[in-house]
UniProtKB/TrEMBL annotation:
It comes from Caldovatus sediminis. Keywords: Dioxygenase, Flavoprotein, FMN, Oxidoreductase. Pfam families: NMO. The keyword Oxidoreductase applies. Gene3D superfamilies: Aldolase class I (3.20.20.70). This is 2-nitropropane dioxygenase. The keyword Isomerase does not apply. One of its GO terms (molecular function) is nitronate monooxygenase activity.
């Protein structure tokens, strides 16, 4: 026998609920130029033309992961995305890229409307270059002081990303970052990211003052995502507790914190560090050589998992929201679900439907 449907689920959100959601998202929607203030966070190898265009076509805002691309490759990816959508989308660039100014110029020449700088505080020159060229600049703010500094440097919007997120992470949860930053920063729109898997959570952050939300993990299993079927299957099977930060064995040899699903690769990484430490202690490796050996372990590992489907030894970067990924769905269906959940929650809270 099927479980009885809870009474509130029998009432879909009325139009007033969507109007209320529109009002809460107004600033983010205007900033992005999208139907919904929902960004598809750039994910290396996953966020390419197909997923980015699908998200933008579905009313969200796709972002190309340009981090590992050289200028000619980025130019090609932007053009291919523009061929698939006439809606706005962004390009995510890694601030440490040696050819950062060239990559910014590629975006500007292609009339990309929004540039997202990730992977550290961007040099002021890069922000100026992007803005002078007519693009809107989005930066990641890992703390309130840095949020203020980024706004002074010209950031048009900020993303605060909690440690629940997939990929490279900071130490603080979105729950705390949101309380520290949202009440303080009103000058620019602030988007929240990390661990978001349902519309009710998006609504809660909008009510706290967020302009919108950025999600990554939830979009990996979009039908349009080119991630390998084995990569998608690992996401569908995983629970929140499987997405853990990378382990560091010795503080003298820092490991960049990355949240990923545990597999043979993450287990071997611990053994690899132990072996490198043994060789360092035995005088077989200098400190610098040992650090490089540790850093090189994951080189190319995300591509191996996403593109080649090596889910045993590749990197399965995933956020804690992975437990809420239960099947493959079109980008439009995922967006529809998130928006529907948020509208339903508004309707319940404001007494538009019976509880
Ligand atoms: C597989 C994967 C790859 C990612 N790659 C990048 C990246 O290249 N650049 C970046 O700024 N963020 C990257 N992220 C972070 C996302 O853009 C986004 O902020 C994050 O996924 C949000 O948290 P969530 O996964 O809990 O939704 C990645 C995330 C995942 C899951």
């Amino acid at each position: 026998m099927n479980a009885p449907v809870p009474p509130h689920r029998q009432f879909p959100a009325p139009p007033e609920a969507f109007a209320a959601l529109d009002a809460l998202m107004a600033r983010g929607r205007a900033f992005l130029g999208a139907r919904w203030a929902l960004m598809g966070g750039a994910m290396s190898w996953v966020s390419e033309r197909n997923l980015v265009a699908a998200l933008s076509n579905a009313g969200a805002f796709g972002v190309i992961a340009g981090g590992s691309m050289e200028p000619a490759r980025l130019e090609e990816e932007i053009a291919a995305t523009q061929a698939l959508t006439d809606k706005p989308f962004g390009v995510n660039l890694i601030t440490l890229h040696p050819r950062l100014p060239e990559l910014v110029r590629v975006c500007l020449a292609a009339k990309v409307s929004h540039i997202v700088f990730a992977g550290g505080i961007p040099p002021g020159g890069a922000i100026r270059l992007a803005r002078d060229g007519g693009a809107r600049v989005i930066c990641f703010a890992p703390a309130l002081v840095l949020a203020r500094r980024l706004i002074r440097s010209g950031a048009d919007a900020l993303v605060i990303e909690g440690s629940e997120a997939g990929g490279h992470i900071g130490p603080v949860s979105l729950n705390v970052l949101a309380q520290e930053i949202l009440p303080e920063i009103r000058e620019v729109p602030v988007f929240v990211a990390g661990g978001i898997g349902r519309g009710e959570a998006i609504l809660a952050y909008l009510e706290m003052g967020a302009a919108g939300a950025q999600l990554g993990t939830r979009f990996v299993c979009a039908t349009e995502s080119i991630a390998h079927p084995r990569f998608k299957r690992a996401f569908i099977r995983a629970a929140a507790r499987d997405a853990l930060p990378s382990v560091q064995l010795d503080p003298r040899f820092p490991v960049i914190p990355v949240r990923a699903l545990q597999n043979e690769g993450t287990r071997r990484f611990v053994e690899h560090q132990a072996e490198v430490l043994r060789r360092f202690r035995a005088g077989e490796l200098t400190k610098e050589a040992a650090q490089l050996e540790i850093e090189h372990f994951w080189a190319g590992a995300l591509r191996r998992a996403v593109i080649e489907g090596d889910v045993e030894h590749g990197s399965l970067m995933a956020g804690q929201s992975v437990g809420m990924v239960t099947r493959e769905q079109s980008a439009a269906a995922i967006i529809g679900e998130l928006v529907g959940q948020a509208a339903h929650a508004v309707a319940l809270r404001r007494g538009m439907i019976p509880t």
